[in-house]
Design goal:
By secondary structure, the protein is of the alpha/beta class. It has twelve helices and twelve strands. The longest helix has 23 residues. The structure holds nicotinamide-adenine-dinucleotide (NAD) and thymidine-5'-diphosphate.
């Protein structure tokens, strides 16, 4: 079996990617390296935790020794690197954690891969998962982010991701490390930590709590269903050209306030309450510092060159997402009570 290392596989996107790879490719053994920060949740991985081709490793990519030891123990054929601090608001209050994990952690992985793979670089692949936020903010309606758009990160989060992307490219240019990078737009769907807009607001509607819309809700985001992102990652991993970058998105822009109103309507309907009930919870609050106005991905390259297409229309994806969170209130409650952080001790340390 070929060994593949996924980092950050206990997080939102990583858990979808880990499940997809474990279930689709019995010829791979998937190692999931995750530090289980507040964002890591092993409950996301219940369906594969006993699969014969899956191993969870609790470990921190900021610890260079741990990382290089892992690469000495295992001959990983590929790395899919998703581990990161990922929330813009947290990056505004604690930027250093973003430098540590997103920059230093990525460089630790690059160093370990370079050392372990030096005799046969071409047989390996380092796939770095990044974000459209590295491109900064769009101001003209006709503009889209393409793969050659100059980097112009505006938040500590996007600055740290931009920096990690630069290091990944530098290791390709300087040492010939086989790499590929993808930059995706905002994801939504099941298992997203309820600090991000969509799950936070669904959870607040469940508890009749205010829905804090930053500023006037005029900011625009481009939304992709997480399962489609996982499929795109599978496509890039297997078909992407070494050294290339692929933007991933579904041409699906929404102004925050319009999205929040649609989310309120869908949630009202699914809760069986009069449409208009949840909307009353909308509260306009102080804007996020340095809030990027608009993100919009031009995904033609991955569509034309690799044949990837998103499978879902947004309205359908949002329906499924609301349905999932309402049916999985326990998953949300385990996060808000902190119970999810005991899962590792309960299920793994006893074994
Ligand atoms: P997430 O915050 O849900 O999960 C991150 C995971 O990384 C968690 O399981 C966490 O425990 C782990 N982690 C954090 N620090 C670590 C460390 N030092 N060592 C090992 N593991 C560590 O993030 P996500 O939303 O799933 O995003 C995954 C990746 O995709 C990130 O690189 C992010 O930049 C990128 N991305 C996210 C989005 C989005 O909309 N969520 C869009 C585009 C790209
Ligand atoms: P978020 O889910 O944090 O993703 P990102 O900042 O990476 O785009 O936020 C999505 C949009 O929603 C962003 O424009 C900020 C806004 N937002 C709110 O208006 N209120 C909130 O409580 C949150 C978390 C986000």
């Amino acid at each position: 079996m070929e060994k593949i290392l996924i980092t950050g596989g206990a997080g939102f996107i990583g858990s979808h990617v880990a499940k997809r790879f474990v279930n689709t490719y019995p010829q791979y053994h998937i190692y999931n390296l995750d530090a289980l920060t507040y964002a890591g949740n092993l409950e996301n991985l219940r369906e594969i935790e006993r699969a014969p081709n899956y191993t969870f490793i609790k470990g921190d990519i900021t610890q260079a020794d741990q990382v290089s030891q892992l690469f000495t123990q295992h001959d990983f054929k590929g790395v899919i690197h998703l581990a990161a601090e990922s929330h813009v608001d947290r990056s505004i209050t604690n930027p250093s954690a973003f430098v540590m994990t997103n920059v230093i952690g990525t460089v630790n992985l690059l160093n370990a891969a370079k050392a372990a793979w030096q005799d046969d670089l071409a047989a390996h692949l380092f796939y770095h998962i990044s974000t459209d936020e590295v491109y900064g903010s769009l101001h003209q309606p006709e503009d889209f982010f393409v793969e050659t758009t100059p980097y112009d990160p505006q938040s500590p989060y996007s600055a740290s991701k931009a920096s990690s992307d630069h290091f990944v490219r530098a290791y390709h240019n300087t040492y010939g490390l086989p790499i590929v990078i993808s930059n995706c737009s905002n994801n939504y769907g099941p298992y997203q930590f309820p600090e991000k807009l969509i799950p936070l607001f669904i959870n607040n509607i469940r508890h009749q709590k205010p829905l804090p819309v930053y500023g006037k809700g005029e900011n625009v985001r481009d939304w992709l269903y997480v399962v489609d992102h996982a499929q795109a990652i599978d496509t890039v991993f297997h078909k992407g050209k070494v050294g290339e970058t692929y933007n991933i998105g579904g041409f699906n822009e929404w102004k925050n306030i319009d999205l929040v109103k649609l989310l309120c309507k869908v949630t009202d309907q699914q809760l069986g309450q009069p449409v208009g009930t949840a909307e009353q919870l909308i509260t306009f609050v102080k804007d996020r510092a340095g809030h990027d106005l608009r993100y919009a991905i031009d995904a033609k390259k991955i569509m034309n060159e690799l044949g990837w297409q998103p499978s879902l229309q947004f309205e359908e994806g949002l329906q499924k997402t609301v349905e999932w969170y309402l049916a999985n209130g326990d998953w949300l409650d385990h996060i808000t009570t902190g119970a999810y952080q005991k899962y590792y001790e309960q299920q793994y340390e006893r074994r």
